Amino acid sequence: MLKGKTALVTGSTSGIGLAVARALAADGANIMLNGFGEAAAIEKERAGLEKEFGIKARYSPADMSKPAEIAAMIHATEKEFGTLDVLVNNAGIQHVANIEDFPVEKWDAVIAINLSSAFHTIRAAVPGMKARKWGRIVNIASAHGLVASAQKVAYVSAKHGLVGMTKVVALETANSGITCNAICPGWVLTALVQAQIDARAKASGKTVREEEIALLSEKQPMHQFTRPENIGALAVFLASDAAASITGSAYSIDGGWVAQ
Prior knowledge:
By secondary structure, this protein is an alpha/beta fold.
């Protein structure tokens, strides 16, 4: 469905972002990767996308906290591929502390990466999408874009803001051939989360599965993680023609977290 289209996925050198990039590539889209990591590992992923899916893949090292670098990345994507059709804002960081102990610099960093970067990418990408009369914007928000948890003031604020931004962009582009939607995951089984579960099991003497259920039960009624590939599949659907009239929506993929 996306053959000949180009997708930019921020924060896509690992985890959810990489899974989304792979899903879009599997559907035929050329890919601009972005994120931090070891150069050799990033090149392996980039080359792997081209070989496995027969698409073109490039990489931008743009720092998502720097507006000038973001604008340059959008320009480079359009110059390299001739178009930017699908924009997935996935880059994100986290810091946990009570609000009175929350470092100001951590607040600024989380807001910059998790919220402001999406403003800068969308602002730069929308003119080209309007000119081509087609575009898909997918913001990877969170269950924390819909509900709150203690000690996550910056993350929750940013993700709520991202859901709000999604709605505004949807309204402004409603008759431009562009859609803008948010995906709101709950617990996602990434390598980092798996390492946390393994550490909990080692410390408690319980099984890994017991610790998985304990972790999930803190928020979700469903004792099952969302896989990054699930999020990738939803992003592909939202980028498809089947979702042409879906805009301004926030899709929960959270094992029932926000249904409670």
